[in-house]
Amino acid sequence: MPSVPEDSAMKRFNRRGFILGGAAAAAAGCTTVGGKAEKAAAPVQTATPVVAAPAKKPLDPYKGTQGVPLKVGTPCLQSAASTSMGISWSVSGLAKGVVEYADNPQFRNSVTVKSGGFGLAPIDISAIQVRLTGLKPATKYWYRTVTTPFTDYSNIYNAKLGEPIVGKTYSFTTLGEGNHGRFAMICDTHGQWKSYEMRAKFLKENKPELLLWNGDATNTTQDKATAVEIFLDPPVPSAEFAAEVPMSFVSGNHDYRGSWISKINEVLLPRLPSERSSDFWDLKWNFAERLGDMAIIGMDTGEDKPDAHPKWFGLANFEPYRKAQAKWLEQALARPEIASAKFKVLFCHIPLYAAPDHPDYPHDGVKVDPQDYAYWSRECFELWNPVMEKAGVQLVVAGHKHRYRHDLPSSGRRWHQVVGGGHELGMSHGKPDDGRFPTVIEGTVKNGRLVVTAHDVFKNRIAETFTI
Ligand SMILES: [Fe+2]
Ligand SMILES: [Fe+2]
């Protein structure tokens, strides 16, 4: 879908960062123990949020921060699961980072986890990523980041570390059958900060137990800085919600566009490999998790035109990807903890259905046509729907069309489909259009029924609520 110019007022918003004060530096002399329990941690003073002036970067950022103060971003929860949680955050210069966490706010018996996995812990000049594993399902954890700049890394023998920066303490609850919370879905944010802030404010005030970011977070990503801004450091006042609302990402068609985007894993942690069997090693964005009585399933509809379309320059390989996901879906829906969920909710970016009399219907994404693209995906429907019907999926939550709608079940399809709104604020192609508003779509189980509520965060009203 097309995007509009970024809102200049939001672009000027002076983003918040953490810069270490002297007292915090003294208190932050923590040692890291990768994956092992530590003794009770000493009280640690947290860094104070400040409005930082833009820092000058050294000529070669990989040679260290060279006296420029390090700015550390608010952490963002990613690839939420019942026994693991990804945590990523931005840095303004060369740094290493760890996460300290515990199941109590005093950090008794806290565990410190380094970035990366076995072997060398990655350092970076723009994003640090840590994955917590071995967590207990449906359990609340408290955590904080500790980020240490390399002030000089001209070579390994003379490298020097600066003072550690200890982040604010945040908390999250893991997913699982015992987490009887709400999901919330946003989509088609496209880096449009004014409408993004409306959704971020809602999420900060309402704190759902799981956020599905259902695609088209980006437009065309030509460099890592753009991805860091969108996923880790959005310039809006309510961005801090991302530190406490566990998020699972579902790719949209735009999230496959741009000369840098194939390296998105450097900013957005993909699903933990151990969540899937080796047959599906490359399906790094699919997930099936329990959230109380709901099974939450993530599928990737990929790009919006056939692989043979000349626009892809031979780079598209989505058709076999959709087929592989059908096999994964069959296995995922048969897992005992997923099969036993009373409600099965599937998230994907491009809708799986348009009624034959709907204007979207001819645009099914199948034919190679320079003027056309998928308004819904006939290919995904044909591959996935037999599996979904067999398993009894009741709800599909999609995006892509930038206009809220609800399709009731119909012949051959027992599931409802809701399609979320995009970033447009009551306008479409320069004309007033009441059907264009950003949404947050919530779902929760109450009295044995799945209650779905579509919030219009532009006019602060409920667009629709229904139960299944
Ligand atoms: Fe979009
Ligand atoms: Fe889209």
Q: What is the end-to-end distance?
A: 30 Å
Structural class: alpha+beta
What is the count of DSSP helices, taking H or I runs of 4+ residues?
Answer: 7
Given the C-alpha coordinates, what overall shape results?
Answer: globular
| Ligand list | fe (ii) ion
Low confidence ranges:
1-51
At the first level of CATH, the class of the largest domain is Alpha Beta
For the residues shown, what is the average pLDDT?
Answer: 90
- Biggest sheet, open or closed, and with what strands and sense? 6 strands, antiparallel
**In the CATH hierarchy, what is the architecture of the largest domain at level 2?**
4-Layer Sandwich
Radius of gyration: 22 Å
Number of domains: 2
Number of strands: 25
CATH superfamily of the largest domain: Metallo-dependent phosphatases
Helical fraction: 10-25%
Beta-strand share of residues:
25-35%
Question: According to CATH, what is the topology of the largest domain?
Answer: Purple Acid Phosphatase, chain A, domain 2
Question: Could you explain the architecture of this structure?
Answer:
With 468 residues, the protein is an alpha+beta fold. It starts with 7 loop residues before the first helix and ends with a strand. Helix 5 packs parallel to helix 7. Helix content is 14%, strand content 26%. The chain has seven helices and 25 strands. The protein has two domains: 166 residues, Immunoglobulin-like, CATH 2.60.40.10; 285 residues, Metallo-dependent phosphatases (Purple Acid Phosphatase, chain A, domain 2), CATH 3.60.21.10. Strands 5, 6, 8, 9, 10 and 11 form a six-stranded antiparallel sheet that branches. A six-stranded mixed sheet has the order 14-13-12-23-24-25, covered by helices on one side. Strand 23 and strand 24 form a beta hairpin. It binds fe (ii) ion (2 copies). One fe (ii) ion binds next to loops.
